[in-house]
Write a structure and sequence with these properties.
Elements lengths: L1 H39 L17 H14 L3 E6 L6 E5 L22 E3 L14 E5 L22 H6 L2 E6 L2 E14 L11 H13 L15 E7 L9 E9 L5
Parallel strand pairs: 2-3, 4-7
Antiparallel strand pairs: 1-2, 1-5, 3-4, 5-6, 6-8, 7-8
Length: 256
């Protein structure tokens, strides 16, 4: 009888261990599912790169760039346009479509992000392309206080254009200064988004851009100048999607 009783106790203990193990496994699985849910939730929220604030100084720029590069190798540079909120990361994809309606984290965003033409080069001074092109969206009203590149419309005001003659692009290798020589409206028949062009073609493009400028800059582009082009859509001539507002500048020597 004592033997049977001992056997029953052992069976009960084994049963409790098995039940406890099953319960523990279920709880562990539930915890893992919860963690997965938490990791997936940011897809519907602002991601880590899109949440980076404007840089307050040069140290911020390099800190943010370093952080961004560790998170996403598509983070290639930082853009600053004085007297605007344009002060953020430049992304670059394998084509010009990926970041068209995606933010810095690759999340769907109607305003996208600032992104470079996929053919452009970044890095040291000599690494810049003949024409570095940065794209950005604007709002549907050409509001100079709107989001992203909508604030480029401030350059349509001659007083603002006079006050802000430079744009800055930073990479992990340094900060580069570009001198504006043209702000203009155009349709897409003017093929100003050419990256790899020879010096004669580049100068021809720059001279045409200067002839279209809404402000008379006292800057004459030369054959050896490398260009910066900031491009966004405009409704100045109607809601047709074939019109653009463009800022064009030249890269200044490193010592300037």
């Amino acid at each position: 009888m004592k033997k049977v009783f001992t056997t029953l106790i052992i069976i009960c203990i084994i049963g409790l261990v098995i039940v406890g193990g099953i319960f523990a496994y279920q709880q562990l699985t539930k915890t893992q599912d919860t963690l997965v849910d938490k990791l997936e939730k940011p897809k519907n929220q602002k991601g880590v790169l899109a949440a980076i604030p404007p840089a307050k100084n040069e140290a911020d720029i390099y800190d943010y760039l370093d952080y961004a590069l560790k998170k996403n190798q598509n983070s290639v540079a930082w853009i600053e346009v004085p007297e605007t909120d344009i002060n953020n990361i430049i992304m670059q994809g394998d084509d010009n479509d990926y970041y068209l309606r995606r933010n810095e984290d690759g999340q769907d965003d109607i305003y996208g992000c600032y992104f470079a033409d996929y053919e452009c080069g970044f890095g040291k001074y000599d690494d810049f392309s003949q024409n570095t092109i940065i794209y950005g969206h604007s709002d549907s009203t050409d509001n100079p206080d709107g989001k992203r590149f909508a604030q480029l419309y401030r350059f349509a005001d001659p007083e603002f254009a006079k006050k802000v003659p430079f744009v800055y692009i930073s990479t992990p290798e340094g900060k580069f200064k570009f001198e504006i020589f043209s702000t203009f409206f155009t349709d897409t028949d003017f093929d100003y988004i050419q990256v790899n062009i020879d010096e004669e073609q580049k100068l021809e493009l720059a001279n045409k851009a200067k002839s279209l400028s809404t402000y008379n800059y006292d800057v004459v582009p030369s054959l050896s100048d490398k260009l910066l082009t900031l491009s966004t859509c405009t409704i100045k001539y109607g809601t047709d999607a074939d019109y653009r507002f463009v800022i064009m500048a030249r890269l200044l020597p490193e010592e300037v």
